[in-house]
Write a structure and sequence with these properties.
The complex is a heterodimer. Chain A is of the alpha/beta class. Chain A contains 15 helices and 19 strands. Chain A starts with a helix and ends with a helix. By secondary structure, chain B is an alpha/beta fold. Chain B starts with a strand and ends in a 7-residue tail after the last helix. Helix content of chain B is 21%, strand content 18%. Chain B has 6 helices and 7 strands; from the N terminus they run βααβαβαββββαα. Chain B has one domain: Alpha-Beta Barrel (Aconitase, domain 4). Classes of the chains: A alpha/beta, B alpha/beta. Chains A and B meet through helix 2, helix 3 and helix 5 of A and helix 3, helix 4 and helix 6 of B.
Chain lengths: 433, 188
């Protein structure tokens, strides 16, 4: 019987010929990523369990990317960055991207890709639930807690229950005004916030394979919002072109067998996809944008690992160019590289930065920022009972900083179109007119 | 391992996410400093919307003003308990507040895994949904041998699902002790 790509990667990392869903196995870890929120707790458990002077299992496989609470006066948050620095120094870790230096990157999931740590066929764990993002590179990646991360630091291994796989196939061509964010919100709405719990979400079909790496990352990023263990897309030429620009490290491409077993399979016609929002207060509270046009908004937020990549800002800029936003609009590039691209990339001779500034939007520094609320002085943090349209990944009560606020999750196209009108707006109104 | 867990119930609904359990602005405190970590108990469950906090009536704070310990040590939850972020601060803040068990209809997997591997408390799954069966403040006892939950306030007993293969980690205490027991890492 055949295996899925997830099963093949896990089997290879457990030194086994084959594995089946439900098997509990110990896998060898290729990369462990942590950040400022979970790093300090992870390091203290590591020292407690393996000794004050213990060394990590492999310096080259540990990646530390501060990104959550960076541009804040919060003294505890800043102390946590110092703890990262201290550990990096003690352990002489090469892959640290320090705040306030040229090495600072920003949001870890995009930084992992941009710095060449996402490589097909590998196993990557991170102390962040959106670590599923890396699955876009045909690798196994998932989020873990501090304890599991500390265990990996000491041993290079972790136990994993092999997940069943669910297959989401999209055939044909996505309409121009539909983005990967609409696709994942649609699927989460179909299966629910626990519809993929303990399972792999495998994306297939010519429409998926026509997407850029950034759009593929958006699909895998929100697997966790359906409860998924990992999201995954087989590597192809688009993947290897991206990877080769970022690293010389070797990689291995795995593909699902024809006779692989899936717990669930659904084929969608890509051309029938529409812009989707997730209404408050759950990512599976799906509605078509066309059903929500009477929702008045107080602000728009475009950023995060889900919606703060160059592709996302190109989309937003396309709609905002030459126009003025009607509500407070926050632009937060995920990483420094994206930020630099905003100054370089142009639409009809105007840089994205100028397009955003001329439209009246506010620009923030690269970090997770208000996606998860954060300290009180966080850029774009929701206040009071504001109604927010956001390209981020979660609209749980209080997620963006205020328990009274209402957050609608949407694509960058929909967020930009809505910023221009002050109510939820179908981007098709701007794209085709 | 204790064979019974006794405590007072705090009842929550479906999809209690980790931002409700511990809002992100509080994820800055040290988990290892004995004093500073008490902040996690203080803010545990502080993100739960008021009408959902302590069902069925709601509006029951999990911890009293400024206290780091809660009088509620058994949490009752619905479906998909602990969804969202991988922050281990979520099960940690519950343990710091004094939680010793959660009985939910189902769990989000990272939260479940963190609870077990970190040894914070035991995450039980109920056979039937408990949210409407138990009121916040009810006096509960969990019998691990019989795999039952008894509500001593209503004199009703309910079946819990077997802990399954994770029982070995729970009995060992956490993933490190389990790995030592099985010889995977050297004994301390």
């Amino acid at each position: 019987m055949g295996m899925t790509i997830t099963e093949k990667i896990l089997a290879a990392h457990a030194g086994k010929e084959s594995v089946r869903p439900g098997d509990n196995i110990w896998v060898d870890v290729d990369v462990l990523m942590t950040h400022d929120v979970c790093g300090p707790g992870t390091f203290s458990i590591f020292k407690k369990q393996f000794g004050e002077n213990a060394k990590v299992w492999d310096r080259d496989k540990v990646v530390i990317i501060p990104d959550h609470f960076i541009f804040t006066k919060d003294t505890h948050a800043n102390r946590n960055i110092d703890i990262l620095r201290q550990f990096v120094k003690e352990q002489s870790l090469p892959h640290y991207f320090d705040v306030g230096t040229d090495r600072y990157k920003g949001v870890c999931h995009l930084a992992l890709a941009q710095e060449g740590f996402n490589r097909p066929g590998e196993v990557l764990f991170g102390t962040d639930s959106h670590t599923s993002t890396s699955g876009a590179f045909g690798m196994f990646s998932t989020g873990i807690g501090n304890t599991d991360a500390a265990f990996i630091l000491g041993t290079g291994k972790l136990w994993v229950k092999v997940p069943e796989s669910m297959c989401f196939e999209f055939t044909g061509t996505f309409p121009e005004h539909v983005m990967a964010k609409d696709v994942i919100l649609n699927v989460i709405g179909d299966i629910g916030v626990d519809g993929a719990t303990y399972r792999a979400m495998e994306w297939r079909g010519d429409a998926v394979m026509s997407l850029s790496m950034e759009e593929r990352m958006t699909l895998c990023n929100m697997a966790i919002e359906a409860g998924g263990k990992n999201g995954i897309i087989e590597a192809d030429e688009v993947t290897t072109d991206y990877v080769k620009q970022r690293t010389d490290a070797p990689y291995k491409i795995y593909k699902s067998d024809e006779d692989a077993q899936y717990f669930f399979k659904k084929t969608y016609n890509a051309s029938e996809m529409e812009p989707i929002v997730a209404k408050p207060h759950s990512p599976d509270n799906k509605a078509k944008v066309s059903e929500c046009v009477d929702v008045k908004l107080d602000r728009a937020y475009i950023g995060s690992c889900t919606g703060g990549k160059l592709t996302d800002f190109m989309a937003a800029a396309r709609l905002l160019k030459g126009k003025k936003v009607q509500i407070d609009t926050f632009i937060v590039p995920a990483t420094r590289e994206v930020e630099q691209d905003l100054y370089k990339e142009k639409i009809d001779g105007e840089t994205l930065v100028d397009i955003f500034k001329n439209a009246g939007a506010y620009l923030g520094d690269p970090s997770c920022a208000a996606c998860l609320g954060g300290p009180q002085d966080t850029f774009g943090r929701a206040k009071d009972n504001q109604v927010v349209i956001s390209t981020t990944n979660r609209n749980f009560p209080g997620r963006m900083g205020s328990k009274q606020s209402h957050v609608y999750l949407a694509s960058p196209y929909t967020a930009a179109a809505s910023a221009l009108t002050g109510h939820i707006t179908n981007p098709a109104d701007f794209i085709y007119n | 391992m204790n064979k019974v867990i006794e405590g007072v119930a705090y009842v929550l609904g479906n999809d209690v996410d980790t931002d409700q359990i511990i809002p992100a602005e509080h994820l800055v405190y040290s988990l290892s400093d004995p004093e500073e970590r008490k902040n996690y108990g203080k803010f545990a469950m502080s993100g739960v919307p008021a009408d959902q906090a302590g069902l069925p009536a709601g509006k029951i704070p999990f911890t009293e003003n400024g206290q780091s310990e809660s009088k509620y040590s058994i949490i009752i939850g619905g479906k998909n308990f602990g969804c969202g972020s991988s922050r281990e601060h979520a099960p940690a803040c519950m343990e710091i507040a004094g939680v010793r068990a959660v009985v939910a209809e189902s769990y989000a997997r990272i939260f479940y895994r963190n609870s077990v591997d970190g040894g914070f408390f035991i995450p039980f799954e109920s056979v039937k949904r408990m949210v409407e069966e138990i009121k916040t403040g009810d006096d509960l006892i969990i019998d691990l041998n019989k795999s039952t939950l008894t509500n001593r306030s209503s004199n009703k007993t309910y079946e819990l699902k077997s802990l399954g293969e994770v029982i070995e980690i729970i009995e060992a205490g956490n993933i490190f002790e389990y790995a030592r027991k099985t010889g995977m890492i050297p004994s301390a």
